[in-house]
């Protein structure tokens, strides 16, 4: 039983990170109906901003960790809005395939620019928060795991409040439902879309910091696999559905952790893509997604 609880805790911690990344995918898809494949590399940039900021603030302090987290989120929000303005906005009326190819190009640009400026060798992420271990019987809980879960929960609640309790959140939902009608009602679609990219990128940055706390080795290609798995989590929960993305991330992280602790540990990455295939075959809309009928 203790091993089950330990693996469940580890899975929830990893799933919370996947959920934060998946929220960025699902928000952009909900507004623009395309997948921003550069999102996983914004996650990487967030981790590197945290790496350099971590050298400027005292280590093992709560306020220092929060400063690093805040600066990383702000920096990646600006990066996300810049990417939207320069790369995606000129293609808004172009075919979806053009935008998809551009997203892949931006992803590669960030990865290889990161290798030029940050170097290709892995780096050890600094301990920006106090590190403690808490033992409950044979179950060990680290302070980093508690921080990951707590920060993820706070950010998800904050996102829900923004989307459903603010004016900009109402505008986001309006643009998601019908951008032309929203524009006719006085909504500035450009501002809403830019805000959506900034908000999603800030969540990716938080995910990058939290991921680096638990897996303290970062490199310019670190976002590839977590980004793909977060994309699977978004599909699992229902792409375009915010609670679905969070649920998908938690489920995927938990399943992956249990597989890692079993005799099939070598298949822990393959299981994510097996889940994607199963979902696409039997429930393409995802767990919380709604089936829609497309007119032809």
Question: Can you offer a commentary on this structure?
Answer:
The protein is globular and about 60 Å long. Helix content is 71%, strand content 4%. The protein has 296 residues and is mainly alpha-helical. Helix 1 (2-32) runs parallel beside helix 5 (143-165), helix 1 packs across helix 9 (224-237) and helix 2 (39-54) packs across helix 9 (224-237).
Mean pLDDT across the residues is 90
Alpha-carbon distance between the two ends? 54 Å
In spatial order, strands of the major sheet run 1-4
Task: Output the helix-strand order.
Answer: HHHHEEEHHHHEHHH
Largest sheet, in brief, is: 2 strands, antiparallel
Count, helices: 11
Number of discrete domains = 1
Molecular shape: globular
Low-confidence stretches: none
- The helicity comes to over 70%
Class by alpha and beta content: mainly alpha
Number of strands: 4
* Rg calc: 19 Å
Which strand-content bin applies to the residues?
Answer: under 5%
The gist of it:
The protein is mostly helical.
List keywords for this structure.
single chain, 296 residues, mainly alpha, two-stranded antiparallel sheet, 4% strand
What is the strand and helix layout of this fold?
Layout: H1 2-32, H2 39-54, H3 62-88, H4 96-118, E1 123-124, E2 133-136, E3 139-142, H5 143-165, H6 167-177, H7 179-184, H8 189-214, E4 217-218, H9 224-237, H10 242-260, H11 268-282
Antiparallel strand pairs: 1-4, 2-3
Helix pairs in contact: 1-5, 1-8, 1-9, 1-10, 2-3, 2-4, 2-8, 2-9, 3-8, 5-6, 5-8, 6-8, 9-10, 9-11, 10-11
């Amino acid at each position: 039983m203790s091993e089950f609880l330990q693996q469940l805790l580890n899975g929830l911690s990893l799933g919370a990170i996947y959920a934060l990344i998946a929220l960025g995918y699902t928000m952009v898809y909900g507004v623009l109906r395309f997948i921003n494949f550069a999102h996983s590399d914004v996650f990487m940039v967030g981790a590197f901003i945290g790496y350099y900021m971590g050298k400027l603030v005292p280590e093992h302090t709560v306020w220092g960790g929060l400063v690093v987290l805040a600066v990383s989120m702000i920096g990646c929000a600006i990066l996300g809005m810049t990417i939207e303005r320069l790369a995606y906005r000129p293609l808004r009326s172009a075919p979806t395939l053009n935008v998809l190819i551009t997203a892949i190009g931006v992803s590669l640009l960030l990865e290889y620019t990161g290798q030029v400026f940050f170097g290709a060798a892995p780096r050890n992420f600094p301990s920006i928060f106090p590190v403690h271990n808490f033992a409950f019987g044979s179950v060990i809980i680290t302070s980093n795991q508690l921080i990951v879960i707590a920060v993820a929960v706070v950010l998800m609640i904050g996102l829900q409040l923004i989307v459903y309790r603010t004016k900009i959140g109402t505008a986001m939902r309006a643009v998601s439902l019908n951008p032309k009608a929203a524009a006719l009602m006085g909504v500035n679609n450009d501002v809403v879309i830019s805000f959506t990219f900034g908000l999603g990128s800030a969540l990716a940055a938080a995910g990058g910091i939290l991921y680096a706390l638990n897996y303290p080795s970062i490199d310019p290609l670190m976002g590839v696999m977590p980004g793909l798995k977060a994309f699977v989590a978004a599909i699992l929960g229902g792409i375009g559905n915010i609670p679905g993305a969070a649920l998908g991330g938690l489920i995927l992280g938990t399943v992956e952790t249990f597989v890692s602790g079993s005799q099939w540990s070598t298949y822990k990455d393959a299981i994510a893509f097996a889940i994607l295939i199963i979902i696409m075959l039997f429930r393409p809309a995802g767990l919380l997604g709604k089936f829609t009928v497309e007119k032809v």
